[in-house]
Write a sequence for this structure.
């Protein structure tokens, strides 16, 4: 993450915007006090850039990870099987009898 004072930001805005376009962040200071963070806008359909987003994107570009294709909110796991009777009762009985 780059740091910039307001004066530097005004004088070199294009340079800082290029850095953000490439996925970087800029922390803006006013008299040594942070006041804002300039971050890239997320692409439509993707989650907003979080602290790990840049790292994951870098790993993805290098071919080390692949993002999942599951639609958010929809599980691809099968539904759990409903058992008849009480599983807890059966476990307690097994614990008491050893069977």
């Amino acid at each position: 993450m780059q740091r910039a004072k307001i004066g530097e930001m005004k004088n070199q805005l294009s340079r800082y915007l290029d850095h953000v376009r490439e996925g970087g962040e800029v922390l803006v200071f006013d008299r040594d006090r942070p006041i804002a963070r300039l971050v890239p806008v997320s692409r439509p359909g993707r989650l907003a850039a979080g602290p790990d987003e840049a790292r994951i994107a870098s790993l993805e570009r290098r071919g080390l990870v692949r993002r999942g294709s599951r639609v958010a909110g929809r599980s691809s796991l099968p539904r759990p099987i409903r058992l008849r009777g009480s599983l807890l009762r059966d476990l307690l009985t097994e614990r008491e009898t050893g069977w």
